[in-house]
């Protein structure tokens, strides 16, 4: 047991928080995008009338978790910049990437998810919708573009803080 406790931590606390938060956030994003949503699609749930409501509930919870992660990452970057003498370019890049991540999380939470859910909701009980509205395709494309940008920015930020000692 003394061997475990005698190993010193090599990373500052906020750097570890940033790394763990980014890892959690990006991995849950990939699980949602590559496992859960395709699984729902393959099971035929997207053709059900309650899919918009279920999708909204799933994304409502996940978007709030994303906002917390983005806020924690931005806070960690600002605290890390203030408490450690990091290189100026790296800290500027980290702040810019954290702001991009927060902006994307805000767009998912307050723009895309409500609009997609509203378009997917069928208010006419006796007239079922047989086709996807054209605007929904545009919203899906916007979602995937922002998701790729989020993964790239998150990966770049993870790389910045993982290399920093």
Describe the structure in your own words.
It comes from Floridaenema fluviatile BLCC-F154. The chain has 165 residues and is mostly helical. It has one domain (12-163). Helix content is 79%, strand content 0%. It has helices at 2-5, 13-42, 51-83, 88-120, 134-163. Helix 2 packs antiparallel against helix 5 and helix 3 runs antiparallel to helix 4 (88-120). It is elongated, with a radius of gyration of 20 Å. The two termini are 26 Å apart. The model has no long low-confidence stretch (mean pLDDT 84).
Secondary structure elements and pairings:
Layout: H1 2-5, H2 13-42, H3 51-83, H4 88-120, H5 134-163
Tally of domains: 1
Beta-strand percent range? under 5%
How many DSSP helices? 5
Number of strands: 0
* Percentage of residues in helical conformation: over 70%
Mean pLDDT: 84
Structural class designation: mainly alpha
Q: Can you write the helix and strand succession as a string?
A: HHHHH
Q: What value does the Rg take, in angstroms? A: 20 Å
Shape: elongated
What does the largest sheet look like? none
Unreliable spans: none
Distance between the amino and carboxyl termini: 26 Å
Protein name: DUF4149 domain-containing protein
Transmembrane segments: 12-37, 57-80, 92-112, 143-162
Keywords: Membrane, Transmembrane, Transmembrane helix
Organism: Floridaenema fluviatile BLCC-F154
